[in-house]
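anyone seen this seq b4? input:
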Amino acid sequence: MSNEQHVHCLIIGSGPAGYTAAIYAARADMKPVVYQGLQPGGQLTITTEVENFPGYPEGKHGPEIMEDLRKQAERFGTDIRFGMITEADLSSRPFTLKADDGAVIKADTVIIATGASAKWMGLKSESEYNGYGVSGCATCDGYFYRGKEVAVVGGGDTAAEEATYLAKLCKKVYLIHRRDELRASKAMQAKVFETPNIEVIWDNVTKEIVGVAEGFSKRITHAILQNVKTGEEKQIEIEGFFVAIGHHPNSELFKEQLELDDQGYIVTKPGSTRTSIEGVFAAGDVQDKTFRQAITAAGSGCMAAIEAERFASSVHS
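predicted toks r here
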């Protein structure tokens, strides 16, 4: 077939994990091919200032960091392609994968770095102010709201963790939950209730996030909440709004072939990026539900490339 190609290492995804894997694989002469996926550059491309990625002492915008990583991967000869892998047959090596442009890839090794996506509420204003006050990661963006009043929406461990983290930085944290009790573990609930500057707003959902435009930028001024039992609306004055209703890993393509946990994250061997199929590796947020940071994703991308190179060498030796 004219559109069939054999590659030593196929990397699916182009966030910090995918690009770091590409840098290491390219330097190991594996001639990696990267399919960027639906969101070239990954989740970091929808953030503004990033201050906690090593090597940028003054901070830098997420898209610029990802552009630097892409250029570094290309410098060593990585073949970076726009598009998505739409089919995967991992039943035998070389693995057979198909892209949305019709290309058929036969790959000796596969590194899955498809990431995870934050779950959003679905409000138009939520997407409008994403990166301008609305965030899906308190660890990433909380620092920008020091001394300010913010809100967190959610009721599980993630929301409780985000609220207690933000409470150390912010003047006031509203924790908005649609029910009258949290779903978080008892230990996390205790932390929330023991933190004086966290106010839990029970039985409420967010109806709208409101802000103002300032030149070429914009900022949040308040949120409108609605009581699910009475229908009553109220307004809270905030400058940051954190959505913490969970993440879902982008692993749908592999759910019938690889071992996944009950939340859909790809299961990797402890201390490794190896999956349930030899020659297939997973890095970044598609297999990490604990840290979900750009730097930990990059680290696991490095691990995946090293393990893929070692696997390829052992097969061919």
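The helical segments are 16-27, 62-75, 124-128, 138-141, 157-167, 186-194, 294-316. The chain has two domains: 4-117+248-316, 120-243. kinda curious what u guys think
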